[in-house]
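Reading a protein record of the kind used here takes only a little practice. An example makes this concrete, so a full record is given next.
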Amino acid sequence: MSLSAAPRELDDPRQDGAMTSALVEPRPEPAPVPRPRLRVLDGLRIVAAVVVLSAHYVHPAIWGKRQNKELFGPVAEVARYGWLGVELFFMISGFVICMSAWGRPLGAYLRSRVVRLGPAYWFCALVTGTVMGICAAVYGMRGPTVSQVLTNLTMVQMPLNSPSLDPSYWTLWSEARFYLIFAIVAWKGLTYRRVMNFCWIWTVASILAPASGLPLLALVANQTYSPLFISGICFYLIRREGARVGEPWILLGLSWLLMQRYMTDIPGWNTRAGDRLSWEVPVIVVTCCYVVMAAVALGWLDRIDWRWLSVAGAMSYPLYLLHQQVGVTLMERWERDVDPYVLVLSMTGSMLLLSWLIVRFVERPGSAALKRMLERRPVRA
Protein backbone atom coordinates (compact mmCIF):
# COMPACT_ATOMS: atom_id res chain seq x y z
CA MET A 1 0.00 0.00 0.00
CA SER A 2 1.09 1.61 -1.62
CA LEU A 3 -1.19 2.88 0.86
CA SER A 4 -1.24 5.34 -1.82
CA ALA A 5 -0.23 3.36 -5.12
CA ALA A 6 -2.88 2.00 -7.51
CA PRO A 7 -2.75 -0.54 -10.36
CA ARG A 8 -2.11 1.34 -13.60
CA GLU A 9 -5.12 2.15 -15.75
CA LEU A 10 -4.83 1.27 -19.43
CA ASP A 11 -3.41 4.25 -21.28
CA ASP A 12 -5.85 6.23 -23.40
CA PRO A 13 -4.86 5.51 -27.02
CA ARG A 14 -6.20 8.86 -28.24
CA GLN A 15 -3.55 11.41 -29.06
CA ASP A 16 -4.10 15.14 -28.92
CA GLY A 17 -1.96 16.57 -31.68
CA ALA A 18 -3.19 20.15 -31.44
CA MET A 19 -0.65 22.80 -30.53
CA THR A 20 -1.50 24.42 -27.22
CA SER A 21 0.84 27.33 -27.92
CA ALA A 22 3.54 28.36 -30.33
CA LEU A 23 6.19 27.09 -27.93
CA VAL A 24 4.89 23.71 -26.73
CA GLU A 25 3.57 20.53 -28.24
CA PRO A 26 2.76 17.04 -26.89
CA ARG A 27 5.57 14.59 -27.33
CA PRO A 28 4.26 11.24 -26.10
CA GLU A 29 6.73 8.58 -25.09
CA PRO A 30 6.31 4.97 -26.17
CA ALA A 31 3.33 3.51 -24.36
CA PRO A 32 3.90 0.50 -22.12
CA VAL A 33 2.37 -2.80 -23.11
CA PRO A 34 -1.26 -2.78 -21.88
CA ARG A 35 -2.05 -5.26 -19.15
CA PRO A 36 -5.31 -6.19 -17.46
CA ARG A 37 -6.18 -4.40 -14.23
CA LEU A 38 -5.99 -6.61 -11.14
CA ARG A 39 -9.19 -5.55 -9.41
CA VAL A 40 -8.52 -7.90 -6.54
CA LEU A 41 -5.75 -5.50 -5.49
CA ASP A 42 -8.28 -2.67 -5.51
CA GLY A 43 -10.44 -4.71 -3.16
CA LEU A 44 -7.51 -5.34 -0.84
CA ARG A 45 -6.67 -1.63 -0.79
CA ILE A 46 -10.15 -0.52 0.32
CA VAL A 47 -10.19 -3.28 2.96
CA ALA A 48 -6.83 -2.09 4.28
CA ALA A 49 -8.04 1.54 4.39
CA VAL A 50 -11.21 0.66 6.32
CA VAL A 51 -9.21 -1.49 8.73
CA VAL A 52 -6.87 1.44 9.47
CA LEU A 53 -9.90 3.70 9.89
CA SER A 54 -11.38 1.30 12.47
CA ALA A 55 -8.21 1.53 14.57
CA HIS A 56 -8.64 5.31 14.80
CA TYR A 57 -12.42 5.48 15.26
CA VAL A 58 -12.73 2.70 17.84
CA HIS A 59 -9.99 4.03 20.07
CA PRO A 60 -9.95 4.78 23.80
CA ALA A 61 -8.62 8.29 23.20
CA ILE A 62 -11.94 9.33 21.61
CA TRP A 63 -14.30 8.00 24.24
CA GLY A 64 -12.79 9.64 27.30
CA LYS A 65 -13.09 7.71 30.54
CA ARG A 66 -15.67 5.32 29.15
CA GLN A 67 -14.08 2.02 28.29
CA ASN A 68 -14.31 1.37 24.59
CA LYS A 69 -14.43 -2.38 25.26
CA GLU A 70 -17.69 -1.85 27.11
CA LEU A 71 -19.05 0.27 24.28
CA PHE A 72 -17.96 -1.83 21.30
CA GLY A 73 -17.31 -5.30 22.73
CA PRO A 74 -15.26 -7.60 20.48
CA VAL A 75 -15.10 -4.90 17.78
CA ALA A 76 -12.80 -2.91 20.06
CA GLU A 77 -10.43 -5.87 20.46
CA VAL A 78 -10.19 -6.37 16.71
CA ALA A 79 -9.80 -2.64 16.03
CA ARG A 80 -6.75 -2.50 18.30
CA TYR A 81 -4.84 -4.22 15.49
CA GLY A 82 -6.26 -2.12 12.67
CA TRP A 83 -2.91 -0.41 12.12
CA LEU A 84 -1.81 -3.62 10.39
CA GLY A 85 -3.69 -2.40 7.31
CA VAL A 86 -0.63 -0.25 6.62
CA GLU A 87 1.53 -3.37 6.32
CA LEU A 88 -0.82 -4.68 3.62
CA PHE A 89 -0.72 -1.29 1.89
CA PHE A 90 3.06 -1.45 1.67
CA MET A 91 3.06 -4.94 0.16
CA ILE A 92 0.48 -3.90 -2.42
CA SER A 93 2.60 -0.83 -3.20
CA GLY A 94 5.69 -2.95 -3.91
CA PHE A 95 3.66 -5.16 -6.24
CA VAL A 96 1.93 -2.32 -8.09
CA ILE A 97 4.91 0.01 -8.47
CA CYS A 98 6.99 -2.75 -10.02
CA MET A 99 4.09 -3.70 -12.30
CA SER A 100 3.35 -0.14 -13.42
CA ALA A 101 7.02 0.80 -13.96
CA TRP A 102 7.79 -2.23 -16.13
CA GLY A 103 8.40 -1.15 -19.71
CA ARG A 104 8.26 2.55 -18.88
CA PRO A 105 11.14 5.03 -19.17
CA LEU A 106 12.22 6.86 -16.04
CA GLY A 107 10.42 10.09 -16.92
CA ALA A 108 7.10 8.32 -17.46
CA TYR A 109 7.53 6.42 -14.19
CA LEU A 110 8.18 9.58 -12.16
CA ARG A 111 5.35 11.49 -13.83
CA SER A 112 2.94 8.65 -13.13
CA ARG A 113 3.71 8.92 -9.41
CA VAL A 114 3.13 12.68 -9.38
CA VAL A 115 -0.08 12.36 -11.39
CA ARG A 116 -1.36 9.54 -9.20
CA LEU A 117 -0.59 11.07 -5.81
CA GLY A 118 -0.64 14.83 -6.31
CA PRO A 119 -4.19 16.08 -7.00
CA ALA A 120 -5.98 14.06 -4.32
CA TYR A 121 -3.28 14.75 -1.74
CA TRP A 122 -3.20 18.51 -2.33
CA PHE A 123 -6.99 18.73 -2.11
CA CYS A 124 -7.18 16.57 1.04
CA ALA A 125 -4.40 18.56 2.72
CA LEU A 126 -6.25 21.81 2.02
CA VAL A 127 -9.52 20.32 3.31
CA THR A 128 -7.81 19.09 6.48
CA GLY A 129 -6.11 22.44 7.06
CA THR A 130 -9.40 24.30 6.53
CA VAL A 131 -11.43 22.03 8.82
CA MET A 132 -8.81 22.20 11.55
CA GLY A 133 -8.70 25.98 11.23
CA ILE A 134 -12.48 26.19 11.61
CA CYS A 135 -12.40 23.83 14.62
CA ALA A 136 -9.67 25.98 16.16
CA ALA A 137 -11.87 29.06 15.83
CA VAL A 138 -15.06 27.36 17.06
CA TYR A 139 -13.72 25.17 19.86
CA GLY A 140 -10.66 27.16 20.90
CA MET A 141 -8.25 24.51 19.69
CA ARG A 142 -4.79 25.08 18.33
CA GLY A 143 -5.01 25.11 14.56
CA PRO A 144 -2.35 24.72 11.88
CA THR A 145 -0.33 27.71 10.76
CA VAL A 146 -0.36 28.90 7.17
CA SER A 147 3.29 27.85 6.86
CA GLN A 148 2.44 24.35 8.10
CA VAL A 149 -0.31 23.98 5.51
CA LEU A 150 1.91 25.24 2.70
CA THR A 151 4.81 22.99 3.75
CA ASN A 152 2.48 19.98 3.81
CA LEU A 153 1.59 20.64 0.18
CA THR A 154 5.16 19.65 -0.72
CA MET A 155 4.51 16.16 0.70
CA VAL A 156 8.01 16.19 2.24
CA GLN A 157 7.14 17.89 5.53
CA MET A 158 8.65 15.05 7.54
CA PRO A 159 12.27 15.45 6.34
CA LEU A 160 11.74 19.21 6.69
CA ASN A 161 10.80 18.66 10.36
CA SER A 162 7.43 20.31 9.90
CA PRO A 163 4.34 18.78 11.60
CA SER A 164 1.99 16.85 9.34
CA LEU A 165 -1.58 18.08 9.08
CA ASP A 166 -2.73 14.51 9.60
CA PRO A 167 -0.79 11.86 11.56
CA SER A 168 -1.56 9.32 8.82
CA TYR A 169 0.71 11.20 6.42
CA TRP A 170 3.74 9.43 7.90
CA THR A 171 3.23 6.55 5.47
CA LEU A 172 3.64 8.89 2.50
CA TRP A 173 7.27 9.49 3.44
CA SER A 174 7.92 5.74 3.51
CA GLU A 175 6.26 5.42 0.12
CA ALA A 176 8.21 8.37 -1.30
CA ARG A 177 11.54 6.86 -0.25
CA PHE A 178 10.58 3.61 -1.96
CA TYR A 179 9.61 5.42 -5.16
CA LEU A 180 12.88 7.36 -5.23
CA ILE A 181 15.23 4.42 -4.73
CA PHE A 182 13.21 2.28 -7.15
CA ALA A 183 13.72 5.04 -9.72
CA ILE A 184 17.36 3.89 -9.92
CA VAL A 185 16.19 0.60 -11.42
CA ALA A 186 13.55 2.28 -13.58
CA TRP A 187 16.26 4.56 -14.98
CA LYS A 188 18.19 1.58 -16.34
CA GLY A 189 15.04 -0.24 -17.43
CA LEU A 190 13.37 -3.04 -15.50
CA THR A 191 14.47 -6.61 -16.08
CA TYR A 192 14.07 -9.62 -13.85
CA ARG A 193 17.76 -9.67 -12.89
CA ARG A 194 17.99 -5.93 -12.21
CA VAL A 195 14.90 -5.97 -10.01
CA MET A 196 16.13 -9.00 -8.06
CA ASN A 197 19.55 -7.41 -7.56
CA PHE A 198 17.85 -4.24 -6.33
CA CYS A 199 15.82 -6.26 -3.81
CA TRP A 200 18.88 -8.11 -2.51
CA ILE A 201 20.89 -4.90 -2.15
CA TRP A 202 18.01 -3.19 -0.34
CA THR A 203 17.65 -6.19 1.97
CA VAL A 204 21.33 -6.16 2.87
CA ALA A 205 21.22 -2.39 3.45
CA SER A 206 18.20 -2.85 5.72
CA ILE A 207 20.04 -5.47 7.77
CA LEU A 208 23.18 -3.35 8.15
CA ALA A 209 21.44 0.00 8.74
CA PRO A 210 20.56 -0.40 12.47
CA ALA A 211 24.17 -1.19 13.45
CA SER A 212 25.88 1.12 10.96
CA GLY A 213 25.50 4.32 12.93
CA LEU A 214 24.80 6.07 9.62
CA PRO A 215 21.56 8.07 9.77
CA LEU A 216 21.47 8.48 6.00
CA LEU A 217 21.66 4.71 5.44
CA ALA A 218 18.89 4.15 7.97
CA LEU A 219 16.80 6.82 6.27
CA VAL A 220 17.18 5.29 2.82
CA ALA A 221 17.00 1.64 3.90
CA ASN A 222 13.79 2.17 5.95
CA GLN A 223 14.51 -1.16 7.61
CA THR A 224 11.22 -1.46 9.49
CA TYR A 225 9.08 -1.47 6.35
CA SER A 226 11.47 -2.42 3.55
CA PRO A 227 10.69 -6.17 3.93
CA LEU A 228 7.07 -5.41 3.04
CA PHE A 229 7.88 -3.39 -0.09
CA ILE A 230 10.43 -6.02 -1.14
CA SER A 231 7.88 -8.78 -0.59
CA GLY A 232 5.41 -6.99 -2.85
CA ILE A 233 8.05 -6.74 -5.58
CA CYS A 234 8.81 -10.46 -5.24
CA PHE A 235 5.14 -11.33 -5.52
CA TYR A 236 4.95 -9.37 -8.77
CA LEU A 237 8.02 -11.16 -10.15
CA ILE A 238 6.34 -14.47 -9.36
CA ARG A 239 3.21 -13.24 -11.11
CA ARG A 240 5.25 -12.18 -14.14
CA GLU A 241 7.83 -14.96 -14.39
CA GLY A 242 5.92 -17.91 -12.98
CA ALA A 243 5.84 -19.83 -9.72
CA ARG A 244 8.77 -22.08 -10.67
CA VAL A 245 11.25 -19.23 -10.43
CA GLY A 246 12.83 -19.95 -7.06
CA GLU A 247 14.80 -16.84 -6.15
CA PRO A 248 11.81 -14.60 -5.32
CA TRP A 249 10.45 -17.27 -2.98
CA ILE A 250 13.78 -17.42 -1.13
CA LEU A 251 13.83 -13.65 -0.70
CA LEU A 252 10.20 -13.75 0.43
CA GLY A 253 11.18 -16.15 3.21
CA LEU A 254 13.97 -13.86 4.35
CA SER A 255 11.67 -10.82 4.17
CA TRP A 256 9.09 -12.63 6.31
CA LEU A 257 11.74 -13.35 8.93
CA LEU A 258 12.80 -9.71 8.98
CA MET A 259 9.17 -8.59 9.12
CA GLN A 260 8.39 -10.67 12.21
CA ARG A 261 11.45 -9.23 13.94
CA TYR A 262 10.06 -5.71 13.61
CA MET A 263 6.66 -6.83 14.91
CA THR A 264 8.33 -6.89 18.33
CA ASP A 265 8.47 -3.09 18.13
CA ILE A 266 4.71 -2.75 18.50
CA PRO A 267 3.63 0.91 18.29
CA GLY A 268 2.47 2.14 21.68
CA TRP A 269 0.00 4.78 20.50
CA ASN A 270 -2.90 2.33 20.31
CA THR A 271 -2.45 0.70 23.71
CA ARG A 272 -3.66 1.62 27.14
CA ALA A 273 -1.54 1.60 30.26
CA GLY A 274 -0.83 -1.99 31.23
CA ASP A 275 -2.52 -3.36 28.12
CA ARG A 276 0.22 -4.12 25.61
CA LEU A 277 -0.49 -5.64 22.23
CA SER A 278 0.76 -9.15 21.58
CA TRP A 279 3.49 -10.14 19.16
CA GLU A 280 1.63 -13.20 17.92
CA VAL A 281 -1.47 -11.45 16.53
CA PRO A 282 0.39 -9.01 14.25
CA VAL A 283 2.65 -11.79 12.95
CA ILE A 284 -0.35 -14.03 12.22
CA VAL A 285 -2.26 -11.20 10.50
CA VAL A 286 0.69 -10.11 8.34
CA THR A 287 1.41 -13.77 7.51
CA CYS A 288 -2.19 -14.04 6.27
CA CYS A 289 -1.49 -10.96 4.13
CA TYR A 290 1.50 -12.82 2.67
CA VAL A 291 -0.74 -15.77 1.86
CA VAL A 292 -3.32 -13.54 0.15
CA MET A 293 -0.64 -11.77 -1.89
CA ALA A 294 0.80 -15.16 -2.87
CA ALA A 295 -2.67 -16.14 -4.10
CA VAL A 296 -2.76 -12.95 -6.18
CA ALA A 297 0.70 -13.68 -7.59
CA LEU A 298 -0.29 -17.23 -8.54
CA GLY A 299 -3.50 -16.06 -10.21
CA TRP A 300 -5.80 -17.89 -7.80
CA LEU A 301 -7.89 -14.77 -7.15
CA ASP A 302 -8.20 -13.54 -10.73
CA ARG A 303 -11.91 -14.38 -10.73
CA ILE A 304 -12.45 -11.50 -8.32
CA ASP A 305 -12.89 -9.01 -11.15
CA TRP A 306 -15.93 -6.93 -10.27
CA ARG A 307 -15.84 -3.48 -11.88
CA TRP A 308 -16.95 -1.66 -8.74
CA LEU A 309 -13.72 -2.70 -7.04
CA SER A 310 -11.83 -0.24 -9.25
CA VAL A 311 -13.87 2.62 -7.80
CA ALA A 312 -13.49 1.27 -4.26
CA GLY A 313 -9.73 0.95 -4.69
CA ALA A 314 -9.47 4.52 -5.95
CA MET A 315 -11.44 5.69 -2.90
CA SER A 316 -8.92 4.13 -0.52
CA TYR A 317 -6.35 6.89 -1.09
CA PRO A 318 -8.48 9.95 -0.21
CA LEU A 319 -10.16 7.92 2.54
CA TYR A 320 -6.79 7.28 4.12
CA LEU A 321 -5.72 10.91 3.74
CA LEU A 322 -8.86 12.40 5.29
CA HIS A 323 -10.19 10.03 7.89
CA GLN A 324 -7.94 10.50 10.90
CA GLN A 325 -7.40 14.16 11.79
CA VAL A 326 -10.76 15.42 10.57
CA GLY A 327 -12.80 12.40 11.63
CA VAL A 328 -11.27 11.92 15.06
CA THR A 329 -11.42 15.64 15.88
CA LEU A 330 -15.13 15.81 15.07
CA MET A 331 -15.88 12.57 16.91
CA GLU A 332 -14.14 13.86 20.04
CA ARG A 333 -16.50 16.86 20.00
CA TRP A 334 -19.66 14.79 19.49
CA GLU A 335 -18.96 11.56 21.38
CA ARG A 336 -20.99 12.58 24.45
CA ASP A 337 -24.03 13.56 22.42
CA VAL A 338 -24.30 10.72 19.89
CA ASP A 339 -24.62 6.96 20.32
CA PRO A 340 -21.16 5.41 19.80
CA TYR A 341 -22.20 3.01 17.03
CA VAL A 342 -24.20 5.72 15.25
CA LEU A 343 -21.28 8.11 15.46
CA VAL A 344 -18.70 5.61 14.18
CA LEU A 345 -20.89 4.36 11.35
CA SER A 346 -22.08 7.80 10.29
CA MET A 347 -18.53 9.19 10.30
CA THR A 348 -17.29 6.18 8.32
CA GLY A 349 -20.11 6.58 5.80
CA SER A 350 -19.45 10.30 5.49
CA MET A 351 -15.77 9.70 4.85
CA LEU A 352 -16.54 7.05 2.22
CA LEU A 353 -18.96 9.40 0.46
CA LEU A 354 -16.48 12.27 0.59
CA SER A 355 -13.76 9.98 -0.78
CA TRP A 356 -15.96 9.01 -3.73
CA LEU A 357 -16.70 12.67 -4.47
CA ILE A 358 -12.98 13.47 -4.40
CA VAL A 359 -12.22 10.63 -6.82
CA ARG A 360 -15.04 11.66 -9.15
CA PHE A 361 -14.66 15.44 -9.17
CA VAL A 362 -11.09 16.13 -8.04
CA GLU A 363 -8.71 13.25 -8.61
CA ARG A 364 -9.79 12.10 -12.08
CA PRO A 365 -10.02 15.52 -13.76
CA GLY A 366 -7.04 16.83 -11.79
CA SER A 367 -4.85 13.88 -12.73
CA ALA A 368 -5.83 14.14 -16.40
CA ALA A 369 -5.01 17.85 -16.48
CA LEU A 370 -1.72 17.35 -14.64
CA LYS A 371 -0.73 14.53 -16.98
CA ARG A 372 -1.33 16.71 -20.04
CA MET A 373 0.72 19.51 -18.48
CA LEU A 374 3.67 17.27 -17.62
CA GLU A 375 3.76 15.64 -21.04
CA ARG A 376 4.12 18.93 -22.91
CA ARG A 377 7.60 19.72 -24.14
CA PRO A 378 9.14 22.81 -25.76
CA VAL A 379 9.61 22.64 -29.51
CA ARG A 380 13.23 22.00 -30.32
CA ALA A 381 14.84 24.32 -32.85
